Structures are given as structure tokens and as C-alpha cells.
Amino acid sequence: MPEVNHKDQPSIPVTAAIKAAAPAPVVEAAPIPAAKPTVTEDPSVKLAKALSDAGITNETLEQQIEAILKRKKVERKEALTPKEPDWSKITEAEAYKPDVYIPVIEHDIPDYMNIELKDNEYEAVWASRDQRRLGQLQAEGYEFIQKEHFAAGFHIPLIFDSEGLYLYQDVVAMRVHKRILYGKRRRALEISLNQLKRRGADARIKAKLSKLIAEDPFLERALDSERMGFYDTDAA
Fold first, then answer.
1. Three-state secondary structure of the chain
2. 82-90: long-range contacts (C-beta < 8 A, 24 or more apart)?
3. Any idea of the CA torsion for 161, 166, 169, 170, to the nearest 10 degrees?
4. Hey, which of 42, 133, 137, 149 has its CA 20 to 30 A from 69?
5. How many Cα atoms sit within 13 Å of 204 on the Cβ side?
6. What is the distance between the alpha carbons of residues 208 and 212, in angstroms, rounded to a whole number?
7. pLDDT for 69-127, tens place per residue?
8. What pLDDT, on a 0 to 100 scale, did the predictor assign at position 183?
């Protein structure tokens, strides 16, 4: 190994060597000012300000929106509604094709016997056109229905004849006060109930007679021999 002659190297002062080995001084940087936060404006506020500057009020805006929605609704309805064919050119054979739109019209059949009266104290009845029956009803307080007797807004399905009577086949429309009509119906109900009571009484009487006949052998024999006029307990 070759020898190194330290005598040939330049000598460095000790002080300079220490300074050269020491770390460089730290220079503190000036503080960076914090950036101010940017405030983002609300789009709705911005839009409201623009509308206000343009002179558009909330009422005007609501009217315009409502008009747009209504127009869109009409357009959608028209788009979904099938188009009718050209009636001047279509033929009967084409009308039966499934791809040709033909609207089906349904007619409501009115209730011809239905009557709505203006005066709620009266009831409408249909009476036979038999002259004797009509005379009886008129004597009881019934009267023929006239046009002015119908309720306002009621659609009259039939027409009056030349004598002013509202007819349907063999019956004529009449009206009667509820006091008269309900009184008649109550009386008819009472008669029916009384008849049912009599039937029940007859059944009870028949049951008692049957019991008496069964318990009395002489009575049973007299009935069998048809000798009720000469009935005697001592008869043989």
C-alpha cells in the first residue's frame, strides 16, 4: 500500500474546520396568510334575484308554471288518444281491421219509470189508465203529474201526450200527498196483520177441538155417525 505523506496536505485551521462542519442556520419563513373562504351563492337566491330584477312576481311565475303544466297535460292526452279515421274515405271492410281505430259508442238506457218531484211532500205513482181506477184515485186526492211538478234539473225521458198526460204504455203518472199515500199503506198493513192473527186463532181453535174429540170417545163416535143433533152421553 502506498504511503500517504500528510506533510504534503495543506493544513486547515481548527476554527475554520469547526465552522465548516457546523450546520447552516435555519431561516424562518414568513407566515403565509390563510386564504379567505369563498362563499358560493345559492342558485335559488340567484334565480329569485334575477326574476325580481326582471319584474316577474311570484304570482306571475305560478301562473306561467300552471299554464305550462296544463299544456303538457293536454298534449299528453292528445298523444295517448287514438286518432279517428277519415270518415269520408273509410269503407266498411276497413272498419273491421284491428289496426283501424273505431270508437265504440255506448248509449245509457234511462229508467223511464223514474220520477223526481219538486215538492218532497208528494210521492209519484204509476196508475192504470182504466177509467174507473183513475176516477177512484182522483176522488182519493191523486192528481196527474204536470211538467212543473218535476224537480229542477231532472231529465224527463218520456214526452207528454196531446192531453198533457205523462204516459208509459198502459199506465199514467200521478202524484199524491204522503199523508194520503202512507195512510192507505198503513191501513193495508193493519188489515194484513189482522188476517194473520185470525189465521192463528183458527189454528188454535182447531187444535183445541181436535184435543176434545180425542179425549171424548162419545163425541168422536157421534161425529163419525153424523148424529150430533141426538148427542147423548148414554147413547150406545
1. CCCCCHHHCCCCCHHHHHHHHCCCCCCCCCCCCCCCCCCCCCHHHHHHHHHHHCCCCHHHHHHHHHHHHHHHHHHHHHHHCCCCCCCCCCCHHHHCCCCCCCCCCCCCCCCCCCCCECCCCEEEEEEECCHHHHHHHHHHCCEECCHHHECCCCCCCCCECCCCCEEECCEEEEEEEHHHHHHHHHHHHHHHHHHHHHHHHHHHHHHHHHHHHHHCHHHHHHHHHCCHHHCCCCCC
2. none
3. -100
4. 42
5. 6
6. 6
7. 998 888 888 787 888 889 899 998 888 888 888 888 777 777 889 999 999 999 999 99
8. 92
d(CA 115, CA 126): 10
Low-confidence ranges of the chain (pLDDT < 70): 1-41, 199-202, 212-236
* Amino acid residing at 34: A
> Which pTM was predicted?
0.43
- CA dist 219 and 236 (Å) reads 12
Distance between CA atoms of 222 and 212, rounded to whole angstroms? 13
Q: CB 115: neighbour CB atoms within 10 A?
A: 22
**Grid coordinates of 228:** 150430533
